[in-house]
Amino acid sequence: MHAPDGFLTGPTAIATGVMSAGAIAASLKASRPELDDDRIPLAGVTAAFVFAAQMVNFPVAAGTSGHLLGGALAAVLLGPSLGLLVVAVVVIVQAIGFADGGLTALGYNVLNMAVVTALGGWAVFRGLRRVLPATATGVSLAAGVAAAASVVLSSMAFSLQWLFGASAAVPFDRVFTAMAGVHALIGVGEGLITAGVIAAVLAVRPDLVRGADGIDRAAGPAKLPRARFVLAAVAASLVVATVVAQFAVGDPDGLERVAEDTGFIEAAEDHAFGSSIFADYATAGVASETVSLAIAGIVGTLVTLAVGTGLLLLVRDRRRGTSADAERAPSA
Amino acid sequence: MGAGHTHPLHVHEHSRTHHLPAHVKVVATLTTAGLVATAPRDDVIAFAGAAVVLAAVARASRVPGRFLVSRLAVTAPFLIAALLLPFVASGPRVDVVGVPLAVEGLWGALGLVSRTLLGATASLLLVATTEVPALLRGLERLRVPPVLTQIAATMLRYLEVIVGEVGRQRRAMTARGYDPRWLWQLGPLTAGLGVLFVRAYERGERVHAAMLARGFTGRMPVLVAERPATAADWAVAMAVPGLVAVARTVGAVVGGAEAWA
Fold it and tell me: What ipTM goes with this model?
């Protein structure tokens, strides 16, 4: 999902750029206790690991393959703030060094692939850890389901940005269905890999998994109940992607609010930049327009909720956790 | 360092572009990419103008076309997506050899393909003419937090090692007759990635210890001081986005191709 230059309109690029920069600044502040301790090389080598892990193609079915995004994985391994920074650096280097993703698209690429996956994934992970047992299996399971959800959240964030700043006349509901559908599948792969990696690391060096605080190490190495896991991951991805859309139709509040928002956007947006899809789209059919606006409202609420929860957790952990961080740091 | 000047990203040459201060080139590249990315989708004059300017920069910097074309391959997924636009877009359709294509989608595809290729070319020219340490220092001069550039520096330094490790794992697996093709065969792959993380982290710990032993204080030493940017440097570098801006102005006056059609 490394979008190229001009994939979304200029105002969208700038707005998402401001959001990404804010999230990076907050993470820099939150991870200061760790990074001030000259531990930048560790973060750098971990970034190289995420970069390399993205290059490992995994089979989806004979012939097709996907690859890891790694935002939720990095968050569970390193904590949300350092995880976000590491994946953001990976995305930025891919754009500058390898032309994978446009320079002017960095705002939304960093937002979707680093901020939403790390913070959203962390929020889901922490939620699941409250429910699941504090064992290696429980942590791996939580990480896997969180990773699956993070990929779908990321695709939803992208569809939402498409609504506000599309560069071509493809209606929002078509983009949303395609993106969320494909990413529900990719999410299962992401979830399986993340759960497997966390289980493997927990078996060797449980102290390296930031998200595994307070687990019962006597419970032995994680054995994943695979059938149950696949079911959970599929359910998490699909619930997020489709059931929400069903609710959307009959929700006048969401509808009204988004109609207001989008009306504002239409007025405020880019006569200079020209290619606002929204005016084109409004003529495409009133019935489907209202439905897709309602879906957009729900999707927006969900993404904001997940990312906001992640951000809150990040800030709260920082307030509370400086001494614990120093304690956890393995002596290098 | 042992590999001399061969680098997958950088084309070693001595041209005016290569010797410009990095931060000047970063500003020029970002401005160019911004101008291309915000050009109206049917502004063929702006796109053609930018293509000519970038080709001239590549020639003046002695960056081979072969290098650019092979590097542009990363944008292929989006080019393919762009080619699908005429089929999935809504709105009125036009018959092309009996196939109904959406007019909106055709213009959208034109804009998307042009912006993608031109933006990617601009950033490829930047890395091709700037060595990585200089580029990172240039970003620091533009107020990018040093923590980020240092993470990036360490990452790029160890990337080759870790990617090599992935290759060795894969080869070992194949040599033992395991070639996973289905989703339920993921187990060994993910265990391998888990081991890879532990190895990467432990390597990071060793690197950090070695750096501390050599007196690392949290900042990398600057080995070659970058010269300050002169007015002439800025003039030469900003001529590139300047010419693209001229092409866009001409395009805006003449009008887009959509009006001609």
Answer: 0.88
